[in-house]
Amino acid sequence: MTRVWGLGLLLALLLPLVGTSMPGTVVRLNKAALSYVSEIGKAPLQRALQVTLPYLLDQSGETLQPTRIQIMNVHVPRLRLNFVADFGVHLLAAANFNFKVFRVPEPLELMLPVVLLADAHVAQGPIQTPVVSISACYSLFGNASVPAGSNSTSPALLVLLQKHIKAVLSNKLCLSVSNLVQGLNVHLGTLIGLKPVGPESQIRYSLVNVPTITNDYISLDINAVLFLLGKPIVLPVDTTPFALPHHAGTQGTVATVGLSQDLFDSALLLLQKAGALNLDITGQLNSDDNLLNTSALGRLIPEVARQFPKPMPVVLKVRLGATPVATLHTKNATLQLQPFIEVLAVASNSAFQSLFSLDVVVNLSLQLSVYKVKLQGTASVLGDVQVTVASSNVGTIDMDQVHTLIGTVFEKPLLDHLNALLGIGIALPNVVNLHYTSAKVFVYEGYAVVSSGLSYQH
After folding, report:
1. Which residue among 198, 273, 374, 445 is least crowded, i.e. fewest CB within 10 A of its CB?
2. Structural domains counted in the chain
3. Does the structure show a pLDDT above 70 at 211?
């Protein structure tokens, strides 16, 4: 992986992921990404360029004397990357090679400047991942020199050494770059791996068309498929392709990730089908402030007091029959839940007895954030919880009185449960070891945008 980290990382961070499918995600990497990649890429590129050189066969007198030449270190003071429209990425690296020539009686030190130029083409691979290939690579060599204070050497020997080194490096340096790119393609293959969403659910991203590359950014279209028990989640209505507007997000950010309405709809449909939003709310019977018992309900509903003269536990079975609805407006994300609540009491024989059932509508404000590679959320109740009686086995119910009680015992457990689920989050498009950093989430009409930096953790 060390060698893959070389040019591989340089290009991998340029190709993380994007989408414009159904449901769609769009990621743009702007020029700011190139500055970040250039800085962190110098050290791994230096290691990758430290290749092995064959012995120099130097004829001295009537015999051939093999001379060992070793690269002691490579320093890359300059690394520049540019997008090439409709093609990929151009790399220019200025490197200083320091050699040690093991001559008798004393070793010789040499310095040789090299400029490395490479063009990397970005395409769509057969397994729906980005594929990078080196289409052109050149090494431009300067003149070798002896460091100040070192032993002098004859110009003829210097020319001989330089000729040998150039002949070897002109092939080996570009081969090293190509090897790094091959390792990179393995790394980019992790894009299509399944990422867990819950105990029985996953999400998988895949590239759906050829990357879009301009002189200012690179963008990849990625399809997101959510799975529950191995089966894909399919939206009940046809979706439309998602295109990320140019103005979205923060100006000059490293990565801009667009998340379509369809992605939110798919995630909520997954939660609903998995039953993840269902819960049972109970209370401690002996607790002084427990409102979930027949005594508390009996003070509001006489028939409950008549049927249960002794306090018995009450359970709220909250079931989500309808799919939650997320609405994205500019600077405002909301979530609506329509749970069905069945109010049950434990009878003397420990069997559950249905008292009444309620149709509930809860509107919530949704705050979005990003941690590492996951989009997370936090919800809070907006306005009043709407409660109506669906059925009753305890006669007429005065909802003005029961409403306050139900709201008190229902809202907090629901929020705790929902926020625990939203806190788990859903993985954004990513490859192994690549994280989003200092991310800000903006909400627009029909989509959300993550403006973020990137961090590769080797």
Report:
1. 445
2. 2
3. yes
